[in-house]
Amino acid sequence: MPNRLADAVSPYLRSHAENPVDWYEWGDEAFAEAARRQVPVLISIGYATCHWCHVMARESFSDPELAEFLNDNFVSIKVDREEHPDVDSSYLAAAGAFTDQLGWPLNVFATPTGRAFYAGTYFPPVAIEGRASFAQVLAAVLDAWHERRGEVEDTAGRLAAALAQPTTTSAGSLPTEADFAAVVSELIQHEDAEFGGFGSAPKFPVATVLGLLLDREDAGDATAGALARRTLDAMANSNLRDPVEGGFFRYATRRDWSEPHYERMLYDNALLLDLYARVDDGGIASGIADFLLNVLRVPSGAFASAQDSESTVNGVRVEGGYYALDAVARADQASPALDEKVLTGWNGLAIGALASAGSRLGHPEWVGAAVRAAEVVGFGDVVRVRIGGRVSTARPTLEDYGMLANGLLDVALATGEARFASRALELVTVALVDGSFAVPGGADPVLTARGLALDVDPSEGAYPSGLSTVARAAVRLELLTGDRALRNAAVTAMELLAPLALQRPISFGAALGVMSLLAVPERQLVVVTAGEAAAGWDAVGGNPVGAAGAGDDLATIARAWREGTVAVVTLPQAAAFVAAGFALFEARTLQRGSPTAYLCENFVCRLPITDPAVLRAALALRPS
User: Fold this and answer.
1) Domain positions in the chain
2) CATH number for the domain formed by residue range(s) 11-163
3) Helix, strand, coil in percent for the chain, rounding step 5
4) What is the chain's mean pLDDT, rounded?
5) pLDDT at 544 over 70
6) Residue 168 has what pLDDT?
7) Alpha helix (H) ranges present in 450-521?
8) Which of 140, 201, 547, 548 could potentially form a cystine with 534 if both were Cys, beta carbons 3.0 to 4.6 Å apart?
């Protein structure tokens, strides 16, 4: 039996390489083999830090008898959902027709054409509490395939046809202030007044919703900001946060934030770093940044996708055992393994969070780390996954373009280096076709060939959708360039999501955040300081090389302002932005040789400001 997973890029796939199951990677070969043999396909989807994925691997996929049955009667495909998020989204949507207990491992049974006809999540090795064993499920699926083939294929065809319908049927209007007030009111109704957060158990950070609430605070809604801050405080003081290494775990299984699932994801920690920096909680932000830099950073300077929940403590493999130890005891144990996949989109989130938080809280070493990671993933061909010099064949997704573009914009604004903004503009421009956003190069070709690719995947889950992130980047770039086509495309995209988002705000925090950005006045602040243009950043130490004005009063005031786009640049840097096509920086010069601020609305600027007190008054900021 060939071992097709031994050399896979994905660590998750490689962890299954020694299974007796005859696994295939995602691709045409597996479906062709199923068609040749006329057998059903098992598509098993998970990820490296998924606890129950590991459990099922040990209990079932390592069982020789079960593996023999699978090999004789099925073609089995193993998929890393983080490597192929579009595959996961498509089959997750299909699985919803068979179970409301969606999650991972996701095990989908499909025809040789790839159409799902049954699905479930974790199946135990022995039937328990009304849940069929995996062997029983396999036997029932095979019986249906042989004895009721017509019914199976009819079900699969009707489900595929339903999923092929547009995800959003009609566009709506962007939310009004009254709509946003109703959204905040609904979120307050979902708040757990005793323990903080939203709903009961399991309890997730829902960082995108907290970001929306802070956006609404910036727009003048103090109630929204208070809700966000209560939630952030509750999480910071809960078992969801590792007090030793600073990172946050993925979710808690109990309402009081206790008994976490101990995997620590890059996207959660990147988003939370940005949030805690926005509320000026430097202590918690520093802990998260330390976790990113000391635990998740890989030798290239980019960031691994996650750290495992399981580890071996005193010779026993256990979930969460490492995290129950203090710093001294941990020094004698092996750290939980990293999933060292470097995902472009998630790295974009980390790059942006480190750059903006470092600039706001005065940590140039964070900005330097963001610059180094941006150099690794931000230029050249956009890829979905890289690891140790190897690149996955998986297609990049819209989230890779959007998250990376936003991250590069944050680096540009933190360092004053126009090349990062220029690259962000390239990424958004290539994803903009005829006024709408789409994945450059098209969706996954295997899904597309079988009519299974989703037209638009608006789902946000724990982090923003590709459509939301690329729309946010477009709005931000319009504030720098004045190109209304960028803003118009974002409006079109958000009008498409508005009906869904207003119905389920807890599930569309990032999209509503973009809509909030579109609803507020377009305000911009440029501070031009004396000094030479930065020659670059010391990517190891994080020290600016050649930059001036970081401690200037005008710059400090500007970085504390949260209501618009802020850029602090030297005079030569402003010229570089102008040369790259960013109209906001035109005619931004020093007044009488002094650092000068330009406060603008819709590219119409006030008279230049050189007095910090005048700038503070113009921004309605209290003296610090």
Assistant:
1) 11-163, 177-305+340-520, 525-618
2) 3.40.30.10
3) 45, 15, 40
4) 92
5) no
6) 62
7) 466-481, 484-503, 509-519
8) 547
